[in-house]
Amino acid sequence: MIPAPFEYVAAESPAQALALLAEHGDDAKLLAGGHSLLPMMKLRLATPAVLIDIGRLGELAGVSADNGELVIGATTRHADLAAAELVRSQAPLLAYAAAQVGDPQIRHRGTIGGSLAHADPAADLPMALVALGGSVEVAGPDGTRVVAADDFFQGFFETVMQPDEMLTAVRVPRMPGVPWGYQKFVRRANDWAIVGVAAVDGRIALANMGPRPLRATAAEQAVADGASAAEAAALAADGTSPGEDMHADREYRRHLARVLTRRALEHQTG
Ligand SMILES: Cc1cc2nc3c(=O)[nH]c(=O)nc-3n(C[C@H](O)[C@H](O)[C@H](O)COP(=O)(O)OP(=O)(O)OC[C@H]3O[C@@H](n4cnc5c(N)ncnc54)[C@H](O)[C@@H]3O)c2cc1C
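That is the input. Now the predicted structure with flavin-adenine dinucleotide docked in place:
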């Protein structure tokens, strides 16, 4: 459980972090909260030669309002996201999702940018971002581009970001008072979802039902057509092909998706 040797650089600005990424390419990795990257390095599943620490860049942290959206800096920690009054009032599903991540220690180190970039299909914040119809700002050598959540996650631990790009901010629509539902089925309180469901404003997102967070499009269409929660939820696993592991086989995950979608639709708050 000892990582391979690496060089550590604490970036002094986002521009310096980008310059270091451009210089080192595939050999470098950004370090934010370190709560996904460091375990992978200890297991030698990741062996970056250079770690570029962006976790201390205050200019990449914090929440602000920009017309109809909230803008959340990439290094905003899960605990700060869960506690931010602006997020709790304008995008309560996101605040709630952040509060479901791991345990207090993890929430005080892990960042929203790190979670989204890591792109674990079982994670809370990627599913929440897809449910909210949010987007991310990605900076690179050619400037900054905005990518919709539906397009950002490409596959198992894979996003559209290139090795020389950095996620700088997250945007979510402001939805004060819009009902939302969130269900996460876990074996122990601080675990990743065996299956998760987030529903808000006609959108339904699923965690751990495929290689990336998915939309339950058949169930969404049924809701739009006026179906009951039970009728819509019966379609929640349509088109999915979840993986199997020691926690659940494929059919059990499909069952969970239907049950949790029904609960998410029936027990909405806001
Ligand atoms: C015991 C345990 C339990 C956990 N439980 C949960 C859970 O229940 N739900 C859940 O969702 N998560 C869970 N997590 C994961 C946790 O949320 C991590 O904090 C998160 O996945 C990664 O965030 P980080 O800031 O620590 O990223 P890091 O570990 O620093 O980085 C992760 C990856 O993202 C890249 N990266 C980081 N920031 C950026 C950026 N701004 N731009 C581009 N790339 C970037 C890194 O290079 C690396 O590849 C758990 C982790 C542990 C250790």
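The two ends are 45 Å apart (CA to CA).
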